[in-house]
Amino acid sequence: MRADQLNALIRVMGAGYIETLVKESARTLREQLGSARTLYHVAATQFAFLSAPGATMPGYLDVVSAGLAVSAAGSIARFVTTMAAGIVPVTLGAIRSQEILRAAHSAAQDAQAKDSLISVYATSNDSEYRRNIVLLSAFGTALEDGASLRLVYQPRIDLGSRRCVGAEALLRWNDPTLGDVSPAEFIPIVERTTLAKPTTAFVLDTALRQLAAWQACGVSLPLSINISATNLDEDGLVAAIAAALDAHNVAPDMLEVEVTESAMMENSAQSLARLEALAATGVRVAIDDFGTGHSSLAYLQTLPASVVKIDKSFVDPLDTDDARSRTVIATMISLSKKLGFRVVAEGVESVGAVDTLTRMACDEAQGYVFARPLEAQDVLPWIARFNGDDQMPPLPHREAA
Length: 401
Description:
- This protein is an alpha/beta fold.
- The protein has two domains: 3-121, Reverse transcriptase/Diguanylate cyclase domain (Alpha-Beta Plaits); 135-388, TIM Barrel.
- Helices cover 49% and strands 17% of the residues.
- The protein has 16 helices and 14 strands.
- It has helices at residues 3-13, 15-33, 57-73, 97-113, 123-145, 183-190, 196-216, 229-232, 237-247, 261-266, 268-280, 297-302, 312-315, 323-338, 351-359, 376-388, and strands at 39-43, 46-49, 85-87, 118-120, 149-158, 163-175, 179-181, 223-226, 255-260, 284-290, 307-310, 342-345, 364-365, 374-375.
- Strand 6 (163-175) and strand 7 (179-181) form a beta hairpin.
- Helix 1 (3-13) crosses helix 2 (15-33).
- The longest helix has 23 residues, at 123-145.
């Protein structure tokens, strides 16, 4: 169990529950291992054990997998977390015990990432593990000085008026040693750690400061920021956002918070309460990457969201002759609008896709067909050009429904 998950569970259930959970997990594991094997409690929710002498990898994998499956099925822990095991082939005495445990932890993390019960240590996993440690350390330093972090802004276009009606603030990191680090690499790692809170605070403060600067120039451009499942676990999230809005003298309805379906579902009751409290302040809530999660229509209807952002994976097939994919996205748009959501298509990269989305009555779109994410100083000049640029490729006008 990750540290953030453990802390969240302690807040909800209490430390006594965690102690009971750990003892019960140890008991079920001992039952499967047998009395001849010693079980070592090496961390809060982590155990280690050695294989029997002479064990072979294929047979031992089957034994451990079967044992964990039985333990997981009969454990109260199954309701709050999942078991994952990492196996390290090793000759005792050849490697320090600390290295063995680190390698086992790396393999267990790999199992969790793959939603698997068990994973065998591989050097490729270790390289990724070491890379993640380097990234987290460097990113923590970057947050402290802020010099290598910045926001870029991708415009959102109203498909009816053909005007820029907002932008999404996106975090970028250019490390002095590592160079440009892809957000696809560092953001998923950061979101799983205690760095998630200060990262969101940095994005929020920077975005609102920039929004206020544009307002001072006479331009009101609503901005959206992304928050993670870890952020939704924060007791002070809503108060922190409200305080930041007050500090920058920005109206709540100028800010939109994007949350993925999967983040909402990690702790659906708590997430719903947080988002309801946030919406009550006037901040808009958007469901990001819509269609990629596992939420039900019944759950979607309970969310205090006003915007649905359809994931790029559903938009890409619009540039093909895939009739089924077109039907899927048309249905998503129609259903979302009937449920009262404003619909935004993400990752739009062609005029043809804009044409199709317009005819499907999609409200907004963002993507490379309009603009790549822009540096802050380039946003206002771009808007001025776009709203009256006769060199922009001709875009279709919405047809009557």
